[in-house]
Amino acid sequence: MGDTVGRQFSISKFQKEVIIGCLLGDGRLECRSIEGSARLRIHHGWKQKELVFWKYKTLKNLVSSPPRKIVCWENPKNKEDYYSWYFHTLTIPELREFYERFYSNGRKTLPQDISDLLTPVSLAVWIMDDGCCNEGSVILNTQHLTLKENKILEKTLKRKFDLNSGINKDRNHWRLRFFKSEFRKLKNLIKQFVIPSMRYKIVPVETESERTR
Prior knowledge:
CATH architecture of the largest domain: Roll
Oligomer: single chain
Number of strands: 10
Shape: globular
CATH topology of the largest domain: Endonuclease I-creI
Number of domains: 2
CATH class of the largest domain: Alpha Beta
Strand content: 15-25%
Largest sheet: 4 strands, antiparallel
Distance between the termini: 47 Å
Number of helices: 8
Strand order of the largest sheet: 1-2-4-3
């Protein structure tokens, strides 16, 4: 842990909401410290570079080094390298509570208190990570969740935000889809938190009228 021993780190409400969104999405917590501390790892592909740097700037006081570029895959046909970007926070006790909420026996799960944790900010971050726009509806790729967890999430979204959604099967897994009728309501709920490079997640073909709304 180096010079982090004994230090206390302040995590703002907005940062907590972003961390929750990351953990619902592609982020992961690594808890390898005997003191019970943890660190958050953020890792996205080249096309999500701006998202990585936005997360880094948001969590900068918890991070010691800026994002790094690494080779994630080499095309065997033309030997072209494909890159991704990543960073991780310091290993600190303040992140332990997130680990206890999101992990069970080393597996990432839907927190039991998801209704208390989910906010428009965390939902926006989650959709920037795992969402996609498909024929006027938004899919949230929740295949890592069980069917029971997806049903809990479906009820939570209805109760908290009055958002109607459904669950459909994707091969041997399940994922959540917001109905087309909910598109405008969902967009208005989260659009102020979605960074420009990720707007395609909620606006498939951006028109001039959509830019000014």
